[in-house]
Design brief:
Blueprint: H1 9-58, H2 64-70, H3 77-88, E1 94-103, E2 106-112, E3 126-127, H4 137-141, E4 149-153, E5 156-166, E6 172-181, H5 183-230, H6 237-250, H7 257-302, H8 311-328, H9 338-347, H10 360-363, H11 371-378, H12 380-394, H13 399-410, H14 431-446, H15 457-466, H16 474-482, H17 484-503
Antiparallel strand pairs: 1-2, 1-6, 2-3, 4-5, 5-6
Length: about 500
Protein backbone atom coordinates (compact mmCIF):
# COMPACT_ATOMS: atom_id res chain seq x y z
CA UNK A 1 0.00 0.00 0.00
CA UNK A 2 2.90 2.41 -0.74
CA UNK A 3 1.23 3.79 -3.83
CA UNK A 4 1.27 7.56 -4.06
CA UNK A 5 -2.49 7.60 -4.51
CA UNK A 6 -3.30 4.96 -1.89
CA UNK A 7 -6.01 6.01 0.52
CA UNK A 8 -9.06 4.60 2.27
CA UNK A 9 -12.10 3.18 0.55
CA UNK A 10 -14.18 5.88 2.24
CA UNK A 11 -12.45 8.59 0.21
CA UNK A 12 -12.72 6.46 -2.88
CA UNK A 13 -16.46 6.10 -2.36
CA UNK A 14 -16.81 9.88 -1.90
CA UNK A 15 -15.02 10.45 -5.17
CA UNK A 16 -17.14 7.82 -6.92
CA UNK A 17 -20.30 9.47 -5.58
CA UNK A 18 -19.06 12.81 -6.93
CA UNK A 19 -18.50 11.27 -10.34
CA UNK A 20 -21.88 9.54 -10.21
CA UNK A 21 -23.59 12.83 -9.34
CA UNK A 22 -21.86 14.56 -12.22
CA UNK A 23 -22.98 11.88 -14.63
CA UNK A 24 -26.46 12.03 -13.15
CA UNK A 25 -26.49 15.78 -13.66
CA UNK A 26 -25.50 15.38 -17.30
CA UNK A 27 -28.22 12.81 -17.89
CA UNK A 28 -30.75 14.96 -16.07
CA UNK A 29 -29.81 17.97 -18.17
CA UNK A 30 -30.09 15.95 -21.34
CA UNK A 31 -33.48 14.62 -20.31
CA UNK A 32 -34.59 18.14 -19.42
CA UNK A 33 -33.51 19.36 -22.83
CA UNK A 34 -35.35 16.54 -24.58
CA UNK A 35 -38.42 17.08 -22.42
CA UNK A 36 -38.43 20.78 -23.24
CA UNK A 37 -38.05 20.08 -26.94
CA UNK A 38 -40.72 17.38 -26.99
CA UNK A 39 -43.11 19.41 -24.84
CA UNK A 40 -42.74 22.41 -27.14
CA UNK A 41 -43.31 20.29 -30.23
CA UNK A 42 -46.40 18.77 -28.60
CA UNK A 43 -47.64 22.28 -27.83
CA UNK A 44 -47.18 23.21 -31.48
CA UNK A 45 -49.01 20.06 -32.52
CA UNK A 46 -51.97 20.97 -30.33
CA UNK A 47 -51.99 24.46 -31.82
CA UNK A 48 -51.81 23.02 -35.32
CA UNK A 49 -54.54 20.43 -34.75
CA UNK A 50 -56.94 22.90 -33.13
CA UNK A 51 -56.26 25.58 -35.76
CA UNK A 52 -56.66 23.12 -38.65
CA UNK A 53 -59.93 21.88 -37.14
CA UNK A 54 -61.11 25.49 -36.83
CA UNK A 55 -60.20 26.14 -40.48
CA UNK A 56 -62.08 23.00 -41.50
CA UNK A 57 -65.17 24.16 -39.60
CA UNK A 58 -65.18 27.41 -41.60
CA UNK A 59 -65.13 25.66 -45.00
CA UNK A 60 -68.46 24.84 -46.63
CA UNK A 61 -67.61 21.52 -48.32
CA UNK A 62 -70.54 21.80 -50.72
CA UNK A 63 -69.06 25.02 -52.16
CA UNK A 64 -65.51 23.76 -52.68
CA UNK A 65 -65.94 22.96 -56.37
CA UNK A 66 -67.48 26.38 -57.00
CA UNK A 67 -64.65 28.06 -55.08
CA UNK A 68 -62.05 26.27 -57.20
CA UNK A 69 -63.83 27.16 -60.43
CA UNK A 70 -64.80 30.79 -59.79
CA UNK A 71 -62.42 31.87 -57.02
CA UNK A 72 -63.17 35.23 -55.48
CA UNK A 73 -66.25 35.61 -57.73
CA UNK A 74 -67.88 32.59 -56.07
CA UNK A 75 -70.61 33.29 -53.55
CA UNK A 76 -69.26 33.19 -49.99
CA UNK A 77 -65.60 32.96 -51.07
CA UNK A 78 -64.47 36.35 -49.74
CA UNK A 79 -66.37 35.96 -46.47
CA UNK A 80 -64.70 32.59 -45.92
CA UNK A 81 -61.30 34.04 -46.81
CA UNK A 82 -61.70 36.83 -44.25
CA UNK A 83 -62.50 34.26 -41.56
CA UNK A 84 -59.41 32.30 -42.51
CA UNK A 85 -57.28 35.44 -42.33
CA UNK A 86 -58.55 36.06 -38.80
CA UNK A 87 -57.56 32.51 -37.86
CA UNK A 88 -54.13 32.93 -39.47
CA UNK A 89 -53.46 36.15 -37.58
CA UNK A 90 -54.61 34.72 -34.23
CA UNK A 91 -51.12 33.43 -33.36
CA UNK A 92 -47.64 34.54 -34.45
CA UNK A 93 -46.66 30.88 -34.76
CA UNK A 94 -49.21 30.25 -37.54
CA UNK A 95 -47.22 30.80 -40.72
CA UNK A 96 -49.51 29.52 -43.48
CA UNK A 97 -53.19 28.68 -43.74
CA UNK A 98 -54.44 27.02 -46.91
CA UNK A 99 -57.13 24.73 -48.23
CA UNK A 100 -56.29 22.17 -50.93
CA UNK A 101 -58.26 19.60 -52.82
CA UNK A 102 -55.93 16.60 -53.21
CA UNK A 103 -56.09 14.89 -56.60
CA UNK A 104 -53.76 12.64 -58.55
CA UNK A 105 -52.20 15.54 -60.49
CA UNK A 106 -51.43 17.63 -57.39
CA UNK A 107 -52.95 19.99 -54.84
CA UNK A 108 -55.77 22.11 -56.29
CA UNK A 109 -55.84 25.43 -54.46
CA UNK A 110 -59.11 26.44 -52.82
CA UNK A 111 -57.61 29.05 -50.47
CA UNK A 112 -53.96 30.05 -50.00
CA UNK A 113 -53.36 32.68 -47.33
CA UNK A 114 -49.64 33.11 -47.91
CA UNK A 115 -48.59 36.47 -46.38
CA UNK A 116 -46.62 37.06 -49.58
CA UNK A 117 -49.42 37.62 -52.07
CA UNK A 118 -46.99 37.25 -54.96
CA UNK A 119 -46.36 33.59 -54.11
CA UNK A 120 -49.86 32.76 -52.89
CA UNK A 121 -51.65 30.17 -54.99
CA UNK A 122 -54.77 31.20 -56.90
CA UNK A 123 -58.05 29.27 -56.68
CA UNK A 124 -57.90 26.31 -59.07
CA UNK A 125 -54.09 26.46 -59.41
CA UNK A 126 -52.38 23.08 -59.14
CA UNK A 127 -49.44 22.85 -56.74
CA UNK A 128 -46.98 19.96 -56.92
CA UNK A 129 -46.76 17.63 -53.94
CA UNK A 130 -43.94 18.33 -51.49
CA UNK A 131 -41.48 15.47 -50.98
CA UNK A 132 -42.41 15.27 -47.30
CA UNK A 133 -46.02 14.43 -48.17
CA UNK A 134 -45.47 11.77 -50.82
CA UNK A 135 -45.57 8.86 -48.34
CA UNK A 136 -49.01 10.07 -47.24
CA UNK A 137 -50.51 10.50 -50.74
CA UNK A 138 -52.42 7.20 -50.80
CA UNK A 139 -54.20 8.19 -47.60
CA UNK A 140 -54.78 11.78 -48.70
CA UNK A 141 -56.18 10.70 -52.06
CA UNK A 142 -58.67 8.50 -50.23
CA UNK A 143 -59.75 11.35 -47.98
CA UNK A 144 -58.23 9.77 -44.88
CA UNK A 145 -56.67 11.36 -41.85
CA UNK A 146 -52.91 11.68 -41.34
CA UNK A 147 -50.81 12.57 -38.31
CA UNK A 148 -49.11 15.98 -38.08
CA UNK A 149 -45.98 16.15 -40.26
CA UNK A 150 -42.74 17.89 -39.36
CA UNK A 151 -40.65 19.06 -42.33
CA UNK A 152 -37.52 21.13 -42.67
CA UNK A 153 -36.99 22.42 -46.22
CA UNK A 154 -36.91 25.66 -48.20
CA UNK A 155 -40.05 26.91 -46.42
CA UNK A 156 -38.40 26.52 -43.00
CA UNK A 157 -38.95 24.19 -40.07
CA UNK A 158 -42.67 23.61 -40.15
CA UNK A 159 -45.25 21.45 -38.45
CA UNK A 160 -48.08 20.80 -40.89
CA UNK A 161 -51.54 19.55 -39.96
CA UNK A 162 -54.08 18.38 -42.54
CA UNK A 163 -57.74 18.01 -41.56
CA UNK A 164 -60.21 16.50 -44.05
CA UNK A 165 -63.36 18.50 -44.83
CA UNK A 166 -66.35 16.29 -45.53
CA UNK A 167 -69.57 17.14 -47.33
CA UNK A 168 -73.02 16.02 -46.24
CA UNK A 169 -72.49 12.66 -47.95
CA UNK A 170 -69.35 11.97 -45.92
CA UNK A 171 -67.04 12.54 -48.91
CA UNK A 172 -63.79 14.38 -48.37
CA UNK A 173 -63.91 17.45 -50.65
CA UNK A 174 -60.66 19.07 -49.52
CA UNK A 175 -58.14 19.41 -46.71
CA UNK A 176 -57.79 22.31 -44.31
CA UNK A 177 -54.07 22.77 -43.75
CA UNK A 178 -52.07 24.80 -41.27
CA UNK A 179 -48.28 25.31 -41.13
CA UNK A 180 -46.92 26.10 -37.68
CA UNK A 181 -43.48 27.72 -37.72
CA UNK A 182 -40.89 26.16 -35.42
CA UNK A 183 -37.87 28.19 -36.55
CA UNK A 184 -37.79 30.04 -33.22
CA UNK A 185 -37.69 26.69 -31.48
CA UNK A 186 -34.48 25.80 -33.28
CA UNK A 187 -32.76 28.94 -32.01
CA UNK A 188 -34.08 28.47 -28.45
CA UNK A 189 -32.97 24.87 -28.25
CA UNK A 190 -29.59 25.62 -29.77
CA UNK A 191 -28.93 28.33 -27.16
CA UNK A 192 -30.07 26.00 -24.42
CA UNK A 193 -27.90 23.16 -25.69
CA UNK A 194 -24.84 25.39 -26.17
CA UNK A 195 -25.03 26.68 -22.60
CA UNK A 196 -25.60 23.20 -21.30
CA UNK A 197 -22.71 21.76 -23.32
CA UNK A 198 -20.30 24.43 -22.12
CA UNK A 199 -21.12 23.87 -18.45
CA UNK A 200 -20.99 20.12 -18.62
CA UNK A 201 -17.97 20.09 -20.88
CA UNK A 202 -15.99 21.87 -18.18
CA UNK A 203 -17.38 19.57 -15.50
CA UNK A 204 -16.57 16.47 -17.52
CA UNK A 205 -12.96 17.56 -18.02
CA UNK A 206 -12.53 17.90 -14.27
CA UNK A 207 -14.24 14.63 -13.57
CA UNK A 208 -12.25 12.84 -16.25
CA UNK A 209 -8.98 14.01 -14.72
CA UNK A 210 -10.00 12.62 -11.34
CA UNK A 211 -11.36 9.40 -12.87
CA UNK A 212 -8.10 8.71 -14.70
CA UNK A 213 -6.21 8.86 -11.40
CA UNK A 214 -8.61 6.43 -9.75
CA UNK A 215 -9.22 4.02 -12.64
CA UNK A 216 -6.33 1.66 -11.88
CA UNK A 217 -7.14 1.30 -8.19
CA UNK A 218 -10.93 1.32 -8.18
CA UNK A 219 -12.77 1.77 -11.42
CA UNK A 220 -10.97 -0.92 -13.40
CA UNK A 221 -11.54 -3.71 -10.84
CA UNK A 222 -15.15 -2.74 -10.35
CA UNK A 223 -15.72 -2.45 -14.10
CA UNK A 224 -14.13 -5.86 -14.58
CA UNK A 225 -16.54 -7.37 -12.08
CA UNK A 226 -19.49 -5.49 -13.58
CA UNK A 227 -18.60 -6.53 -17.11
CA UNK A 228 -18.21 -10.18 -16.15
CA UNK A 229 -21.46 -10.08 -14.20
CA UNK A 230 -23.26 -8.41 -17.09
CA UNK A 231 -22.28 -11.31 -19.33
CA UNK A 232 -23.37 -13.88 -16.79
CA UNK A 233 -25.73 -16.40 -18.36
CA UNK A 234 -28.14 -18.65 -16.48
CA UNK A 235 -29.17 -20.54 -19.61
CA UNK A 236 -27.61 -23.83 -18.61
CA UNK A 237 -25.19 -25.36 -16.12
CA UNK A 238 -22.22 -25.29 -18.52
CA UNK A 239 -22.69 -21.56 -19.17
CA UNK A 240 -22.92 -20.80 -15.44
CA UNK A 241 -19.75 -22.77 -14.68
CA UNK A 242 -17.94 -21.01 -17.51
CA UNK A 243 -19.01 -17.59 -16.23
CA UNK A 244 -17.98 -18.49 -12.69
CA UNK A 245 -14.51 -19.45 -13.93
CA UNK A 246 -14.23 -16.09 -15.74
CA UNK A 247 -14.98 -14.29 -12.48
CA UNK A 248 -12.29 -16.31 -10.65
CA UNK A 249 -9.75 -15.44 -13.37
CA UNK A 250 -10.14 -11.73 -12.62
CA UNK A 251 -8.00 -12.35 -9.51
CA UNK A 252 -8.45 -8.80 -8.26
CA UNK A 253 -5.79 -7.85 -5.70
CA UNK A 254 -5.89 -4.24 -4.53
CA UNK A 255 -5.03 -4.76 -0.84
CA UNK A 256 -8.06 -2.82 0.35
CA UNK A 257 -11.83 -3.14 0.71
CA UNK A 258 -12.26 -3.62 -3.07
CA UNK A 259 -10.36 -6.89 -2.82
CA UNK A 260 -12.57 -7.94 0.11
CA UNK A 261 -15.59 -7.08 -1.96
CA UNK A 262 -14.27 -9.18 -4.85
CA UNK A 263 -13.66 -12.19 -2.60
CA UNK A 264 -17.18 -11.91 -1.20
CA UNK A 265 -18.48 -11.49 -4.73
CA UNK A 266 -16.77 -14.70 -5.88
CA UNK A 267 -18.21 -16.65 -2.95
CA UNK A 268 -21.69 -15.24 -3.47
CA UNK A 269 -21.57 -16.03 -7.20
CA UNK A 270 -20.39 -19.57 -6.50
CA UNK A 271 -23.21 -20.08 -3.98
CA UNK A 272 -25.72 -18.59 -6.41
CA UNK A 273 -24.64 -20.94 -9.20
CA UNK A 274 -25.03 -23.94 -6.92
CA UNK A 275 -28.39 -22.69 -5.71
CA UNK A 276 -29.70 -21.95 -9.22
CA UNK A 277 -28.52 -25.35 -10.43
CA UNK A 278 -30.35 -27.06 -7.58
CA UNK A 279 -33.50 -25.01 -8.22
CA UNK A 280 -33.38 -25.87 -11.93
CA UNK A 281 -33.23 -29.58 -11.17
CA UNK A 282 -36.10 -29.31 -8.70
CA UNK A 283 -38.17 -27.17 -11.04
CA UNK A 284 -37.64 -29.61 -13.87
CA UNK A 285 -38.79 -32.45 -11.64
CA UNK A 286 -41.85 -30.49 -10.55
CA UNK A 287 -42.65 -29.55 -14.15
CA UNK A 288 -42.47 -33.16 -15.26
CA UNK A 289 -44.67 -34.23 -12.33
CA UNK A 290 -47.10 -31.43 -13.15
CA UNK A 291 -47.32 -32.36 -16.85
CA UNK A 292 -47.65 -36.03 -16.00
CA UNK A 293 -50.45 -35.25 -13.55
CA UNK A 294 -52.37 -33.21 -16.12
CA UNK A 295 -51.93 -35.86 -18.80
CA UNK A 296 -52.96 -38.63 -16.42
CA UNK A 297 -56.04 -36.72 -15.37
CA UNK A 298 -56.94 -36.02 -18.99
CA UNK A 299 -56.32 -39.66 -19.94
CA UNK A 300 -58.71 -40.80 -17.22
CA UNK A 301 -61.44 -38.69 -18.76
CA UNK A 302 -60.55 -39.54 -22.35
CA UNK A 303 -60.49 -43.29 -21.70
CA UNK A 304 -64.21 -43.11 -20.92
CA UNK A 305 -64.79 -41.76 -24.43
CA UNK A 306 -64.22 -44.56 -26.93
CA UNK A 307 -64.45 -42.09 -29.82
CA UNK A 308 -61.55 -39.76 -29.15
CA UNK A 309 -58.34 -41.83 -29.39
CA UNK A 310 -55.29 -39.60 -28.87
CA UNK A 311 -57.44 -36.49 -29.09
CA UNK A 312 -55.87 -34.69 -26.10
CA UNK A 313 -52.32 -35.23 -27.34
CA UNK A 314 -53.10 -34.21 -30.91
CA UNK A 315 -55.01 -31.07 -29.94
CA UNK A 316 -52.25 -30.06 -27.52
CA UNK A 317 -49.70 -30.45 -30.35
CA UNK A 318 -51.88 -28.38 -32.74
CA UNK A 319 -52.38 -25.69 -30.08
CA UNK A 320 -48.62 -25.38 -29.54
CA UNK A 321 -47.98 -25.06 -33.29
CA UNK A 322 -50.64 -22.36 -33.71
CA UNK A 323 -49.50 -20.34 -30.68
CA UNK A 324 -45.87 -20.40 -31.80
CA UNK A 325 -46.87 -19.34 -35.32
CA UNK A 326 -48.93 -16.43 -33.93
CA UNK A 327 -45.94 -15.35 -31.87
CA UNK A 328 -43.59 -15.68 -34.86
CA UNK A 329 -45.91 -13.45 -36.92
CA UNK A 330 -46.13 -10.84 -34.14
CA UNK A 331 -49.87 -11.39 -33.51
CA UNK A 332 -51.34 -10.97 -29.99
CA UNK A 333 -47.83 -10.17 -28.75
CA UNK A 334 -49.18 -8.67 -25.52
CA UNK A 335 -50.38 -12.13 -24.48
CA UNK A 336 -48.07 -14.59 -26.22
CA UNK A 337 -45.20 -14.75 -23.77
CA UNK A 338 -43.18 -17.95 -23.43
CA UNK A 339 -44.81 -18.52 -20.05
CA UNK A 340 -48.30 -18.07 -21.47
CA UNK A 341 -47.66 -20.53 -24.32
CA UNK A 342 -46.20 -23.05 -21.87
CA UNK A 343 -49.25 -22.71 -19.58
CA UNK A 344 -51.73 -23.13 -22.42
CA UNK A 345 -49.97 -26.13 -23.96
CA UNK A 346 -49.60 -27.79 -20.54
CA UNK A 347 -53.27 -27.32 -19.68
CA UNK A 348 -54.63 -28.10 -23.17
CA UNK A 349 -55.23 -31.81 -22.31
CA UNK A 350 -57.80 -30.68 -19.70
CA UNK A 351 -60.09 -28.96 -22.20
CA UNK A 352 -62.59 -31.88 -22.14
CA UNK A 353 -62.25 -32.69 -18.43
CA UNK A 354 -65.91 -31.80 -17.95
CA UNK A 355 -66.91 -34.95 -19.89
CA UNK A 356 -66.39 -36.82 -16.63
CA UNK A 357 -69.88 -35.57 -15.73
CA UNK A 358 -71.44 -36.90 -18.97
CA UNK A 359 -72.87 -40.42 -18.91
CA UNK A 360 -71.18 -43.22 -20.89
CA UNK A 361 -74.40 -43.78 -22.85
CA UNK A 362 -74.21 -40.31 -24.35
CA UNK A 363 -70.43 -40.14 -24.50
CA UNK A 364 -70.08 -43.39 -26.47
CA UNK A 365 -73.32 -43.34 -28.42
CA UNK A 366 -72.54 -44.76 -31.91
CA UNK A 367 -74.99 -42.47 -33.68
CA UNK A 368 -76.15 -38.88 -33.79
CA UNK A 369 -77.19 -37.40 -30.44
CA UNK A 370 -80.77 -36.28 -29.90
CA UNK A 371 -81.40 -32.64 -29.07
CA UNK A 372 -81.83 -33.55 -25.41
CA UNK A 373 -78.63 -35.63 -25.41
CA UNK A 374 -76.72 -32.85 -27.13
CA UNK A 375 -77.84 -30.36 -24.48
CA UNK A 376 -76.45 -32.73 -21.85
CA UNK A 377 -73.21 -33.11 -23.84
CA UNK A 378 -72.88 -29.33 -23.98
CA UNK A 379 -72.76 -29.18 -20.17
CA UNK A 380 -69.22 -30.63 -20.26
CA UNK A 381 -67.95 -27.08 -20.82
CA UNK A 382 -69.42 -25.57 -17.66
CA UNK A 383 -68.70 -28.75 -15.73
CA UNK A 384 -65.05 -28.58 -16.78
CA UNK A 385 -64.87 -24.92 -15.83
CA UNK A 386 -66.36 -25.63 -12.40
CA UNK A 387 -63.99 -28.55 -11.77
CA UNK A 388 -60.94 -26.43 -12.51
CA UNK A 389 -62.37 -23.44 -10.62
CA UNK A 390 -62.48 -25.62 -7.51
CA UNK A 391 -58.81 -26.45 -8.06
CA UNK A 392 -57.99 -22.74 -8.42
CA UNK A 393 -59.60 -22.09 -5.03
CA UNK A 394 -57.17 -24.59 -3.51
CA UNK A 395 -54.11 -23.57 -5.58
CA UNK A 396 -54.73 -19.86 -6.43
CA UNK A 397 -51.20 -19.09 -7.67
CA UNK A 398 -51.16 -21.71 -10.43
CA UNK A 399 -51.36 -19.65 -13.63
CA UNK A 400 -51.85 -22.70 -15.83
CA UNK A 401 -55.12 -23.52 -14.04
CA UNK A 402 -56.65 -20.21 -15.16
CA UNK A 403 -55.89 -21.11 -18.78
CA UNK A 404 -57.14 -24.65 -18.16
CA UNK A 405 -60.42 -23.13 -16.97
CA UNK A 406 -60.64 -20.92 -20.06
CA UNK A 407 -59.99 -23.89 -22.33
CA UNK A 408 -62.51 -26.14 -20.60
CA UNK A 409 -65.23 -23.50 -20.35
CA UNK A 410 -64.99 -21.66 -23.68
CA UNK A 411 -63.50 -23.93 -26.36
CA UNK A 412 -66.94 -24.34 -27.96
CA UNK A 413 -67.62 -20.61 -28.18
CA UNK A 414 -67.71 -19.18 -31.71
CA UNK A 415 -66.22 -16.00 -33.14
CA UNK A 416 -69.73 -15.03 -34.31
CA UNK A 417 -71.16 -15.36 -30.80
CA UNK A 418 -73.32 -18.39 -31.66
CA UNK A 419 -71.38 -20.92 -29.62
CA UNK A 420 -71.88 -22.21 -26.11
CA UNK A 421 -72.08 -22.14 -23.10
CA UNK A 422 -72.21 -18.31 -22.78
CA UNK A 423 -72.37 -17.01 -26.36
CA UNK A 424 -69.18 -14.97 -26.14
CA UNK A 425 -68.04 -13.40 -29.43
CA UNK A 426 -64.82 -12.14 -31.01
CA UNK A 427 -61.92 -11.30 -28.72
CA UNK A 428 -64.17 -11.58 -25.67
CA UNK A 429 -63.46 -15.30 -26.00
CA UNK A 430 -60.14 -16.07 -24.25
CA UNK A 431 -57.28 -16.46 -26.74
CA UNK A 432 -56.41 -19.96 -25.54
CA UNK A 433 -60.01 -21.11 -26.13
CA UNK A 434 -60.07 -19.56 -29.62
CA UNK A 435 -56.92 -21.49 -30.53
CA UNK A 436 -58.27 -24.70 -29.03
CA UNK A 437 -61.49 -24.28 -31.03
CA UNK A 438 -59.56 -24.59 -34.30
CA UNK A 439 -57.40 -27.48 -33.05
CA UNK A 440 -60.40 -29.31 -31.58
CA UNK A 441 -62.57 -29.07 -34.70
CA UNK A 442 -59.72 -29.99 -37.05
CA UNK A 443 -58.92 -33.14 -35.08
CA UNK A 444 -62.60 -34.07 -34.88
CA UNK A 445 -62.93 -33.68 -38.66
CA UNK A 446 -59.98 -35.89 -39.63
CA UNK A 447 -60.40 -38.55 -36.94
CA UNK A 448 -62.34 -41.77 -37.25
CA UNK A 449 -65.27 -42.21 -34.89
CA UNK A 450 -67.58 -45.15 -34.38
CA UNK A 451 -70.32 -43.07 -35.97
CA UNK A 452 -68.28 -41.67 -38.89
CA UNK A 453 -65.06 -41.93 -40.85
CA UNK A 454 -62.53 -39.13 -40.71
CA UNK A 455 -62.56 -36.58 -43.52
CA UNK A 456 -59.59 -36.25 -45.89
CA UNK A 457 -57.24 -33.42 -44.96
CA UNK A 458 -58.38 -31.34 -47.94
CA UNK A 459 -62.01 -31.54 -46.83
CA UNK A 460 -61.11 -30.66 -43.23
CA UNK A 461 -58.98 -27.71 -44.39
CA UNK A 462 -61.87 -26.51 -46.55
CA UNK A 463 -64.27 -26.55 -43.60
CA UNK A 464 -61.81 -24.69 -41.37
CA UNK A 465 -61.31 -22.09 -44.08
CA UNK A 466 -65.09 -21.68 -44.59
CA UNK A 467 -65.58 -21.02 -40.89
CA UNK A 468 -62.94 -18.27 -40.81
CA UNK A 469 -64.58 -15.21 -39.30
CA UNK A 470 -67.69 -17.18 -38.34
CA UNK A 471 -66.78 -19.98 -35.99
CA UNK A 472 -63.07 -19.15 -35.75
CA UNK A 473 -60.84 -16.13 -35.15
CA UNK A 474 -59.54 -15.15 -38.64
CA UNK A 475 -56.01 -14.51 -37.34
CA UNK A 476 -55.84 -17.94 -35.76
CA UNK A 477 -57.09 -19.62 -38.92
CA UNK A 478 -54.43 -17.78 -40.93
CA UNK A 479 -51.75 -18.94 -38.48
CA UNK A 480 -53.12 -22.48 -38.69
CA UNK A 481 -52.68 -22.52 -42.47
CA UNK A 482 -49.33 -20.75 -42.27
CA UNK A 483 -48.14 -23.72 -40.19
CA UNK A 484 -49.94 -26.26 -42.38
CA UNK A 485 -46.85 -28.44 -42.89
CA UNK A 486 -46.32 -28.82 -39.15
CA UNK A 487 -50.02 -29.54 -38.61
CA UNK A 488 -49.93 -32.28 -41.23
CA UNK A 489 -46.78 -33.74 -39.75
CA UNK A 490 -48.53 -34.18 -36.39
CA UNK A 491 -51.69 -35.54 -38.02
CA UNK A 492 -49.72 -38.05 -40.08
CA UNK A 493 -47.72 -39.22 -37.07
CA UNK A 494 -50.82 -40.00 -35.02
CA UNK A 495 -52.60 -41.48 -38.02
CA UNK A 496 -49.72 -43.90 -38.53
CA UNK A 497 -49.77 -44.75 -34.85
CA UNK A 498 -53.49 -45.52 -34.98
CA UNK A 499 -52.98 -47.77 -38.01
CA UNK A 500 -50.27 -49.72 -36.20
CA UNK A 501 -52.42 -50.12 -33.10
CA UNK A 502 -55.37 -51.29 -35.23
CA UNK A 503 -53.23 -53.87 -37.10
CA UNK A 504 -51.94 -55.23 -33.79
Amino acid sequence: MNSKFSFSIQKKILLLIFVALAVFGLISARLSYEHYLNATIEQHKRLGVSTSALVASVIDADRVQNFIKNGELASGYMNTKRQLEIIRDSSPNIKYVYVYKILEDGCHVVFDLDPDTATAGKPGEVVEFDEAFKPYLPTLLKGGKIDPIISDDKFGWLLTVYTPVYDNDGTCQCYAAVDISMDHLRADTERFFDSLAAVFGLMLLCILAIALLLARRIINPINSMAKTTGNFAFDNEQAMERNLEEIRRLNISTGDEVENLYQAFVKMTNDSVRYVTDIRHKNETIRKMHDAFLLTLADMVENRDQNTGDHIRKTAAYVKIILEELKREGIYTDQLTNKYIRNVVSSAPLHDVGKINVSDMILNKPGKLTDEEFEIMKTHTTAGGNIIASLIDKVPDSDYLYEAKNLAMYHHEKWSGKGYPTGLAGEDIPLSARVMAVADVFDALISNRCYKKGFPYEKAFSIIREERGRQFDPKIVDAFFAAEDQILEVADKFSEKEKQETSE
